[in-house]
Amino acid sequence: MPDKVAAAYDNAILTANKAGHIQDEALAYERGGVFFKRIGDELTASRYLARAQQLYAVWGAEAKADLLRTQYASLVTNARRRRSFQSFKKRRSSKNMIVHVSPGEGCHA
């Protein structure tokens, strides 16, 4: 049953995104986040709630974004930390990329 519910939230998110309905996408992320929190999947809940908070802010619903930030502070903060760390790791690995060039060849990345 949880898989069907998760799929329904993902479908709602995708449909709202394709239609350009940012407020509906934010709501679907929020409700999905609450669902995942309720079933004990805090990692997914944190991702969904952080995305909902971002979308509400982009839409201009700052009060709603602030409410989510307050209600789910630890989840939203943890999601941001994970994203920042993953982004740091990607930047770091691309800076450390080594390109081998044989004599007479151009440089291709």
From TrEMBL:
Organism: Trieres chinensis
UniProt name for this protein: Uncharacterized protein
Domain of life: Eukaryota
